Amino acid sequence: MSDQIKFIVDNLNKEPFRKNYNLITFDSLEPMQLLQVLNDVLAEIDPKQVVDIREEMPEQTAKRMLSLLGILKYKPPGNATDMSTFRQGLVIGSKPVIYPVLHWLLQRTNELKKRAYLARFLIKLEVPSEFLQDETVADTNKQYEELMEAFKTLHKECEQLKTSGFSTAEIRRDISAMEEEKDQLIKRVERLKKRVETVQNHQRMLKIARQLRVEKEREEFLVQQKQEQKNQLFHAVQRLQRIQNQLKSMRHAAADAKPESLMKRLEEEIKFNSYMVTEKFPKELESKKKELHFLQKVVSEPAMGHSDLLELESKINEINTEINQLIEKKMMRNEPIEGKLSLYRQQASIISRKKEAKAEELQEAKEKLANLEREVSVKTNQTREFDGTEVLKGDDFKRYVSKLRSKSTVFKKKHQIIAEFKAEFGLLQRTEELLKQRHENIQHQLQTIEDKKGISGYSYTQEELERVSALKTEVDEMKGRTLDDMSEMVKKLNSLVSEKKSALAPVIKELRQLRQKCQELTQECDEKKSQYDSCAAGLESNRSKLEQEVRGLREECLQEESRYHYTNCMIKNLEIQLRRATDEMKAYVSSDQQEKRKAIREQYTKNIAEQETLGKKLREKQKAVRESHGPNMKQAKMWRDFEQLMECKKQCFLKQQSQTSIGQRNLLGTNVSCFEETFI
C-alpha cells in the first residue's frame, strides 16, 4: 500500500498535475478533496470531466465516474458483492477504493486518453427495432454505421502512418520517381498518337474506343449497384427474420406474463431473499464468529508439548465415554413423549439441512447464471467489435448451420467442376499457344506480301474495325439485358415490400398492445424494485452498524485478553519469587546444618570468603613480583648485551678463520673464559 501511495504522489507532482503533495499531506486529504483529485485525473484523460464536484450532486458524480471507468474498462477487485461496496466507497470518497483507481489510471494515462477519445465516436447507440421500421430512421442509422466504419478505417490508417515512420526524403524520392514516370507516359502517348495519325479514320476509331471505355465503366457501376441491391435485399430478409423471431419470443413471454405469475415470481424471490437474510446469513455469521473466537483462543494459549496433547486426548476420550453413557441412560428410559419429540426434531433438522442445501444450490446457480450472462455479453461485444454483426441464437443458428452444410456440398461439387475446367483449360491453353504460333507465322507472311504490294497495315486496320463493331454489338446487347434485369428486380422488390408491409400490419398492431402492457408491467416492476432497494438499503445500513459494533467489541475483547495474559504472567513471576523467598527463609531459620548450607546466603558468604583468600594470595604474589622486577630487568639487559657481544665475536672469528693459527684460537678461548668469569 505504501508503494502504491508513493507512486500516486510522484505522478501527481509531475506534469500536468503539479499538486506538490508529500506522503503525509496526501494521506491526510479529506474524502471530498480525494474525489476532486480523482476527478482531475479523469479530466486529464477525458476533457469532458472538468467539473467542480462541490457544485455537483454526489449521485451524479458517482454515476459520471462509474460510466467513464466502465468505458475505460476498469475492473474493481472482488466479485459482484464487492461492486456495491465499490460504488458506496466511490460516493463517500473511501481511500481503499480510490487509491487503486488512481494507481490504475496513472499507470496507463496515454493509453486511456486514446481509449476515451475513441469511445466518443465508437460507442454505438442502440436503436429499438420498432423504430428501425421507419425508412428515414433506418437510413440515418445506416449512415451512422457507415460513418463509424469509415472513422475506424481512417483511424487505423492514421495510426499506421504514425507508426510507419515515413521520412520527407523518401516522399520526395517517390514524387520525383512519379514525375519521371509521368514524363515517360506523356512521351509514350505522343509516340502512339503519331503512329495512329498515319492510320485511316483514326478519329472515328478513337471515338469508338472512348465510347467503349465509358460503357465498360457504366457496366461495372451497374454490376456494383446490382450487388448492393442484392445485399440490401439479403439484409432486409435477415431483418425480417429477426423481427419475426422477436415477435415470437414476445408472444411467448406475453402468454406467460400475467400479473399473477409475475407476483408469484416476485413473492418467491422475496421469500428466498428474506430466508437468506433472516436465517442463513445470521447462522453463517455466528459460525464464523465462533470459529474466530476459537482461533483467537488457540493463538492466545501457549505452545503445547507432547505431554499436553496426550492429556487433552485422554480428557476427550473420558468426555466421549460420559456422553455415550448418558445416551444409553436416555435410551433406557425410553419416554414416549421425548421419543416423538426426537422424531420431530430429526425431521425438522433434516428439512432445515435440505433447505440450506437447496438455498446454497440456488445461490450457486444464480452466481453461475450471472457469470455466464456476463461472459455472453462480453463475447457479443467482442463479436460486434470484430464483425459488427449480431450473434445468432437458437433456431437462427440451426438454420445458419444447415445453410452452411448445403453450401459446403455445393462448394464440393463446384470444386470438382473447377478441377475439370482446370484440366480442360490446360489443354485449351496448349492448343491456343499452337494456334498463336500459326497465326504469327501467317501474319508475318501476310505482312511481307502487303509490303511487296505497297499496302502495309491494311489487314490490321480491317481487324480492328471488325473487332470494335463486334464489341459495340455485344455492349448494346448487354445494356438491353441489364436494363431488363434491373426493371424485373425492381418490380420484384416492390412486390416483396408491399407483401411484407401487408403481412406486418397486424403484427405491428399486436406489438403496440403488447408494448402498452409491457410499459405497465415495467412500471410495477420499477415500483417493486424501488421498494426492494429501500428495504435493502435499510438492511445494509443496519448491517454496517452491527458490523461496527462487533468490530468494537472484538477490539475490546482482544485488549481485555491481552491484559488478562499480562497479569497472569506477572502473577506467575511473583509466585516464583515468593516461593524462592520462603525456601530461603526456611533454610536460614532451620537448625539443620545441611539445609543451612543449601541456603543462598551461606553459599554467597562461602564464595565471598574464597574470593577474599584468593585476593590475598594474588596481592602477595604481586608484591613479590614488584620487588624482584628491577634486578630481573637488569639481568635480562646484561644477557642481551652479552648475546650481542658473542654475535660480534662470532663474526670476527669467521672473518679471521683463514688467517689465524691454532695458538691464536687457544688464546681466544682463554680470553673468552676470562671474560665470562669477570661477567659472572
Automatic annotation (TrEMBL):
Keyword Cytoplasm: yes
Subcellular location: Cytoplasm, Cytoskeleton, Cilium basal body
Keyword Ribosomal protein: no
Domain IFT81 calponin homology per the UniProt entry, residue ranges: 3-126
Any one GO molecular function term: tubulin binding
Keywords: Acetylation, Cell projection, Cilium, Cilium biogenesis/degradation, Coiled coil, Cytoplasm, Cytoskeleton, Differentiation, Phosphoprotein, Spermatogenesis
GO cellular component: ciliary basal body; intraciliary transport particle B
Domain of life of the source: Eukaryota
Gene3D superfamilies: Intraflagellar transport protein 81, N-terminal domain
Pfam families: IFT81_CH
Segments forming a coiled coil: 137-246, 309-382, 504-621
Family indicated by similarity: Belongs to the IFT81 family.
Function description: Component of the intraflagellar transport (IFT) complex B: together with IFT74, forms a tubulin-binding module that specifically mediates transport of tubulin within the cilium. Binds tubulin via its CH (calponin-homology)-like region. Required for ciliogenesis. Required for proper regulation of SHH signaling. Plays an important role during spermatogenesis by modulating the assembly and elongation of the sperm flagella.
Name of the protein: Intraflagellar transport protein 81 homolog
Organism taxonomic ancestry: Eukaryota, Metazoa, Chordata, Craniata, Vertebrata
